[in-house]
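A brief tutorial aside. Many learners find it easier to grasp structure tokens once they have seen a single protein encoded end to end. The record that follows does exactly this for Putative amidohydrolase. Read the sequence first, then the structure, and try to relate runs of similar tokens to stretches of the chain.
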Amino acid sequence: MINAIEETQKRGVNRAEHRLHLRCELPHHTTLPLFEKLVQREPVTLVSLMDHSPGQRQFANREKYREYYQGKYSLTDAQMQQYEEEQLALAARWSQPNRETIAALCRVRQIALASHDDATHAHVAESHQLGSVIAEFPTTFEAAEASRKHGMNVLMGAPNIVRGGSHSGNVAASELAQLGLLDILSSDYYPPACWMRRSASPMTRATALRCRSGEAGDQKSGASA
């Protein structure tokens, strides 16, 4: 895909400028090598730092984590327990080193950095310290408000608006919009979502950002375009 984008842009046949958003799943040994390979490509202009391991951010509730992944991968109880233990071990080994290294590389290359699923003041403070300029999908009002105070633009998913709330039980994008805490609306996992609307959704401050990105919850790969 990246090769095709670069080639068509060189030939001047694209009707729009195409840029890449790398979403990096931190708790994995392949993430940094893949990132280092992809980040050298010219279209990369945005990077997100994600951690969907058990007990973290979107999955602070471990039961929700088990429910989601056991259903997604059709695992038995024993298989799910093994999978969860494996993910915890990967997170302990790779999450923080990858977070710090990838953030540092983005700063050197002046690539915009986004946090992902921040839930607490501590999460936001760390994201700000690492150089994040976008708060991607904060899961709580607390995190969205703190992100704004740190000068970060708050991004939420348009499917959250269309559904009338978060599929994970987190803060609703419409609530943040009503409070003036929503800056960017992304199509996320459903590209047509930016063209759909709920009649009661106050989107006056949100900027529609049409961007197709990888599935946020997939831990079987590292960086995704």
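Self-check: The radius of gyration is 17 Å. If you spotted this yourself, you are ready for the next section.
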